[in-house]
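Study this protein:
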Amino acid sequence: MRAIKTTLTATLVSLLVAGCAAPVRYVDPAADEGAVALTLDYRDFEHAATATVEDMLASGAVDNPSGKRYVMVVSRITNDTMQRIDTDQLIKKIRVALLRSGKVVTTTAVGLNGAEDEMTSKARELRKSDEFDQSGVARKGTLQAPDLSLSGKIIQRNHQLDGEQQVEYYIQLTLTDLTSGLATWEGETQIIKRGPDDTVAW
């Protein structure tokens, strides 16, 4: 009997807690005015990506004299912050915007740690199979070598102020011409936040 009462009490407490919790809801990223965290969030990546692409396009660094689109490869993007950041969250936004500009296309057939999409090489292995119509198999010499490489670093610096802490993020990116090895564009986006000393910044 006592076990039944304990179970009923626990169930009632759980229901009361669940009933008092805020309901789950969708957030419109374009109109989100929610609390700002000291950590990097999707709004920061959106801002950094937009600023980067706008500056890159305005500089003329991705204007190919031939009129064709440049082929870009993503190199190393180093996370030098206290957070576990998936740098692809930032780079993907930049890639999408550059692709939509009609000036740059990204290769997924090559990368520092191998192909981003291994299907490029797997599909070419079909040349060895008699089961596939060879007219539809990619021929040799059809892959496009990259013209440009995008690399960079995300840096975090924390400072103690009077009763507050200031967290500074620097998103530094470089676009390198792979033929000459010269950096044809470099940019830095700063994101600076202030908050209470007891707010977690990682």
About this structure: The two ends are 48 Å apart (CA to CA). The longest strand covers residues 164-177. The first helix runs from residue 2 to 20.
